[in-house]
Write a structure and sequence with these properties.
Structural class: alpha/beta
Helix content: 25-40%
Strand content: 15-25%
Strand order of the largest sheet: 3-4-6-5
Largest sheet: 4 strands, mixed
Bound molecules: S-adenosylmethionine
Number of helices: 8
Shape: globular
Low-confidence stretches: none
Radius of gyration: 20 Å
């Protein structure tokens, strides 16, 4: 109880109290598609971890925890009502790979990235992680990112899974790609131009991902394997995407992502 009272004093639901110095932290349980209450250009660092396309059904799984929170009287309204389930509609994760669902994911993620760009300071940094086996999952992420006006400064591999894991098998990606992004000078205008990748950047992504694989493979316990190399290569391709008219020196992002394949460099 003492703990709850102390925390209650220092944690607020209003982000501006943190910015004004009267709270140490602010917690909101809601979709990131709108970060209302956080002023433009006020944030130094955003660290986030969006749903990896369709890898996990977060809302459905969190109904289990919600039931516990409800019975302990800890769930916030309206979720203190046992008749109300976890907010599935606002969950970014896909439950099928139909064109419409992919479009909803892409658009929602785009709104989230635009909000992140809006609240970042001019020299602020946004860092997020991602991994997926499918080029369509990478295309949706890349398109949302490049249209938001965030620019990727670098991509790094980071071990995301432990040695075991119930959802792990031989082809499982164990290493996430970490994107480090900066606020671009402008948001690309909503044009009919596509997300494209310079052909030279595709070659570079393959070389860089292979160099990481070669280096990390020297220590077997690190466990950086071919699915991880492929994942990193796709992340690096996404990081170099831009919105531009069709040109022979560029390839559409969706096609560039399909040039990557398993089985080594
Ligand atoms: C990859 S997981 C992050 C896991 C977290 N890093 C951890 O270690 O527990 C993605 C998270 O995004 C949340 N999420 C899904 N849709 C969201 C949305 N529209 N806005 C904010 N968060 C969302 C999910 O509920 C899930 O907790």
């Amino acid at each position: 109880m003492i703990y709850r009272q102390t925390v209650a004093k220092e944690v607020s639901t209003h982000p501006w109290r943190v910015l004004g110095g009267s709270s140490r932290a602010s917690i909101s349980t809601k979709t990131s598609e709108s970060l209302e209450g956080i002023p433009d250009g006020s944030i130094d660092l955003i660290l986030t971890d969006p749903p990896y396309f369709d890898n996990l059904s977060y809302s459905e799984l969190s109904d289990f925890y919600l039931a516990w929170h409800q019975s302990l009287g800890m769930a916030e309204p309206p979720y203190d009502n046992p008749a109300i389930a976890a907010p599935i509609k606002e969950n970014l994760a896909l439950t099928d790979r139909g064109d419409q669902s992919i479009e909803v994911y892409r658009n929602s993620l785009h709104r989230i990235f635009c909000e992140c760009r809006r609240v970042l300071k001019k020299d602020g940094i946004m860092v997020f992680t991602y991994h997926h086996k499918s080029p369509v999952a990478w295309d949706a992420l890349g398109d949302a990112l490049v249209r938001s006006g965030l620019k990727c400064a670098t991509v790094l591999p980071l071990r995301g899974e432990g040695q075991g894991g119930l959802h792990s098998y031989d082809g499982t990606i164990k290493w996430d790609a970490v994107f480090v992004c900066r606020k671009g000078s402008q948001v690309p205008s909503a044009s009919s131009d596509n997300a494209v990748v310079p052909r030279t950047a595709i070659k570079q992504a393959k070389e860089q991902a292979s160099a990481y694989a070669e280096d990390l493979a020297k220590t077997r316990q690190i466990g950086f394997r071919d699915p991880d190399r492929l994942n990193l290569e796709r992340a690096m391709i996404v990081a170099s995407a831009v919105i531009a008219p069709t040109h022979p020196d560029f390839m559409p992002l969706s096609d560039a992502l399909k040039t990557s394949s398993t089985g080594g460099p």
